[in-house]
Amino acid sequence: PGTTALTYSSPFPADFAFGVAAASAQIEGAAFEDGKGESVWDRFARIPGKVYQGHTPDVACDHYHRFDEDFALMASLGIKKYRLSIAWPRIYPNGDGELNPKGLDFYRRLFASMKKHGIEPWVTLFHWDLPQALEDRGGWTSRVTVDAFARYADTVVKAFAADVKHWITLNEILCFTLLGYGTGSKAPGRKESAKVVNQTYHHALLCHGHGVRAVRAFGGKGAMVGLTDNCGVSVPVTETPADIAAAKAWFIDRNAQILGAIHAGKYTANFLTRVGADAPDVQPGDFALISLPTDFLGLNIYSATFVRAGRSGAAYEALPHPVNYPSADSPWLRLVPQSIYWATRFCAECYGHQALYITENGCGYDTEPVVNGEVLDLHRRDYLRNHLREAHRAIADGVPLKGYFLWSFIDNYEWEDGYQRRFGIVHCDYETQVRTPKLSARYYADVIQARRIL
Ligand code: PNW
Q: What is the tens place of the pLDDT at every residue in 144-171?
């Protein structure tokens, strides 16, 4: 590391991608329009007490009807890459079974509008909006979902091979498995045993493999595919060899179930020892699919855990954040910008990836200051700047970090936090659907234009 003399004022590499991200269920709205099937989030939001004030994704940012306006705004800010997701229940309202041509039409119109505005799509096949009909047949606990996903992936990749060159198979496996079936804080809100939860992870890994297979089979020339993971991120308390080794050991343990298994082409011995009798059932051929080579790895990085060398012989010691440690309004979102540096560096070192992308990074707040009609989100400007500096530092140290997608383009449906928590660089007035760029949008636009940290 440390061979390139990049400084904070040097530009990002010429091919570094700057973009923004969002997801179908969080911005589209039109939850029951044009034949769309019910998703697990449409159902979950209606269970009393599950989502902040019972907010539903029914309307969200009404992006379904306003995408052209949204892409015009994006283009006016100089944003040329947009990570979006396709709503599975729009394409197959029942998960499998009959195809809904109006669902494909919608995305066809959407990609045409993006093209018109000079914006390149990065498309996630699954960002949590599982068709409820599949949940009724077991959801992620069942291999029925794996077969249905394989078919859905084939359909979508075939339909949009000419429009899409970058595919992401799944978004954040941990969130829709552990949080959906273990803790129950996310849809479908189930509380299953560790054994069952481990099986949901395994089925998700199989779907990742099917996504890769589909892109190789039908994506056409130059199509690229990868997973987006919210890996556990450790930051060494001191940047000394002992704490760095400890942070790396924690990182390997913590990420064994997803990144470690994909990389090894099997569940590692350490992981199997840790889970014991709760290990998932694996069928012959599963890992041939799961470990198919990918073109890049996407990382959603928001925060990190501090780790230091363990006392009395332990490999590491992970530290709880003190209550006064600065955070955004989501309690899990402690402000640790070095997360970008260490996550990308450890991923490159442990799994040998040739290309890494930050596919999400951002911060959410419940109230933001409005002065003379402008949201003065200096806190978000700081967050962005501090995190981009760490991206820059990673590149300077030889980490193959190739791009950064900010979460999120516009305030949107923040899952169980409803519309209360705002992550956008563009403000959304949910009464009028008026969009207003915040200070941070202007800041990001200037950074993209200058291609360096400002
Ligand atoms: C990500 N955590 O979710 C998702 O990909 C987005 O859809 C979401 O809006 C965004 O981050 C902001 O929350 C996460 O508990 C949810 O550590 C929870 C966690 C991390 C990411």
A: 999 999 999 999 999 999 999 999 999 9
Alpha helices in 234-282 (DSSP H): 241-254, 261-264, 269-275
CB distance 120 to 65 below 8 Å: no
Question: Per DSSP, what are the bridge partners of residue 224?
Answer: 166
Backbone angles phi, psi at 365, to 5 degrees: -135, 150
Can you give the pTM of this predicted structure? Answer: 0.97
User: Which among 28, 135, 360, 414 is annotated as catalytic?
Assistant: 360
* Residue 51 to residue 45: CA distance in whole angstroms: 6
Of 207, 96, 115, nearest to 162 by C-alpha is 115
> Does the beta carbon of 359 sit less than 6 angstroms from any atom of ligand 1?
no
On whether the CB atoms of residues 438 and 427 are closer than 8 A, the answer is yes
Residue ID of nearest Cα to ligand 1 atom 9: 414
User: What ipTM was reported for this prediction?
Assistant: 0.89
Token pair in block for residue 262: 């994909």
- 330 contacts 340 by C-beta, under 8 angstroms: no
- Active site (annotated) includes residue 360: yes
Q: Where are the alpha helices (DSSP H) in 227-351?
A: 241-254, 261-264, 269-275, 286-290, 338-351
Ligand 1 contact, 253 CB (< 6 A): no
Q: Tokens 């889970």 label which residue? A: 275
360 DSSP β-pair partners: 300
Q: Is the peptide bond before 437 cis (omega within 30 degrees of 0)?
A: no
Q: Do 419 and 411 touch, CB atoms closer than 8 A?
A: yes
Asked if 407 and 361 count as a contact pair (C-beta separation under 8 A), the reply is yes
3-class SS of residue 333 = coil
Q: Is 122 left (phi over 0), alpha (psi -120 to 50) or beta?
A: beta
Instruction: Give pLDDT, residue 10.
Output: 85
How far is ligand 1, taken at its centre, from the CA of residue 341, in Å?
19
3-state helix, strand, coil in the chain (%, to 5): 45, 15, 40
172 is a catalytic site residue: yes
Distance between CA 236 and CA 242 in Å, rounded? 9
Which residue, chain included where needed, has tokens 């990065």?
122
Residue 81 C-beta-side C-alpha neighbours within 13 Å: 22
How far does Cα 405 stand from its chain's mean position? 10
Residues in the chain: 454
Res 2 pLDDT > 90: no
- Which residue from 454, 438, 446 is spatially nearest to 376, judged by alpha carbons? 438
How would residue 313 be classed by pLDDT, with cut points 50, 70 and 90?
confident
- CA-172 nearest atom, ligand 1: 5
DSSP 50: S
Give the pair of three-digit tokens for residue 100. Answer: 């809904």
